[in-house]
Amino acid sequence: MISRYENPVVLYQTRGDFVECQHRGAYVLLRGEQMMASAGEIERLYFCRSGTKFFQALPPLLSGAVDRYGVTADELALMCASHNGEPEHVRVAASLLEKGGLAVSDLGCAPHSPMSAAAASALRSRGEKPTSLHNNCSGKHAGMLLAARALGESTADYLAPSHAVQRGIVQLLAQFAEIPAEAVRTAVDGCSAPTFVLPLNATARAFANFGRPGPMFSEAQRRACARLLAAIRAHPHLLAGEKRFCTALLVATEGRVLAKVGAEGFYGGCIPDEGIGFALHIDDGSTPASERLLAALLHRQGLLTTEELDRLRGMVDPERRNHAGRVVGAWVPTIA
Fold it and tell me: How far apart are the first and last CA of the chain?
């Protein structure tokens, strides 16, 4: 059954004195039980896509795989990544596999060209083809494989929804979102792993709990979240890479604000020190629109300083410029 959104316009793109296009969407920002800001149908289901990688990286820690195989902080950060396929990303992904006695052929994510244009060009210049290590999800998959190995489960079918690792992820996501596990719907992601469909307000709650897990979570779960947060903050480049908003936001805020992109217009994240979680979705799937909306939302709520916003200007400029550098219009958020 197709679920249709009836969301408001949250962002306009102007050209000259006219609106050229508009983006509908929904967003929610929570601090504990307090709703700080929201728009649209936040109780409807939205795909998170790669936005749930923080939660998909928990099983390698909770299974004991990280300590058993000597996984380092940079490798933990890559487990959470939608990376560019730059040389460092590929190296760290290969290291994860090697530590578990695994091969590139064990990865269930298919090869694709690096998301970084420079890395893709360098690969072509050497006459090399991309491997599954260049897939932006290779760190997540390597982590899942390590968790399967530590649990004594099969690695051949680690992506099956019935696999212990995948069932564990569903249970964790439901716990963090504070919803029943049967309410977590799944489909197949671009990397062939399960992807999740959740109410947007529940997704924001999951991120808030990830950033600051309360007494409902075990000591092991709290430690796992803390280790992932520390790893991401210490290695922001591994979360995404050059010219990527997830990395740039971490750097601009010195690790205070963590955000994770998901394909087709999703962003989620947290501000751990303030117990804040947020999630948003642009209905037409525009990532540039979702990044500008997120920056504007955080700034409007006083969660992103003007100085921090200035550090992101190259990515979320309110002005629209043509190839000659002329200002031809603007991005105009409609945040209340």
Answer: 32
Q: How many CA atoms lie within 13 A of 119 on its CB side?
A: 23
Q: How many CB atoms lie within 10 A of CB 65?
A: 23
pLDDT digits (tens, 9 = 90+) for 112-148: 999 999 999 999 999 999 999 999 999 999 999 999 9
Separation between Cα atoms, residue 96 and residue 143, nearest integer Å: 7
Closest CA to 230 of 238, 240, 241: 238
Determine the Cα–Cα distance for residues 307 and 298; give it in Å rounded to an integer.
Answer: 13
How far is C-alpha 39 from the geometric centre of its chain's CA atoms? 21
What is the edge-to-edge ordering of all strands in the sheet holding 45-47? 45-47, 194-199, 185-188
CA atoms of 88 and 130, how far apart (whole Å):
14
Torsion angle, CA of 62/217/49/277, rounded to 10 degrees?
Answer: -140
Q: Which residues on adjacent β-strands are paired with residue 187? A: 195
Inter-helix orientation angle 164-177/200-211, to 10° = 90
What is the CATH code for 9-333? 3.40.710
The two tokens of residue 199 are: 């109410």
DSSP per residue, 126-179 = TT----GGGSTTHHHHHHHHHHHHHTT--STTTTSTTSHHHHHHHHHHHHHHTS
Residue in this structure with the two tokens 């994240």, named with its chain if needed: 269
List the alpha helices (DSSP H) in 212-305: 219-234, 236-239, 245-252, 287-300
How many angstroms separate the Cα of 153 from the Cα of each of 49, 142, 218, 276? 25, 14, 23, 36
pTM: 0.95
State both tokens at 246: 């997830």
DSSP assignments along 55-121, one per residue: HHTHHHHHTTHHHHTT--HHHHHHHT------HHHHHHHHHHHHHTT--GGG--SPP---SSHHHHH
Q: The tokens 């948003």 sit on which residue?
A: 280
167-212, pLDDT tens digit by residue? 999 999 999 999 999 999 999 999 999 999 999 999 999 999 999 9
The span from the CA of 24 to the CA of 19, in Å, is 14
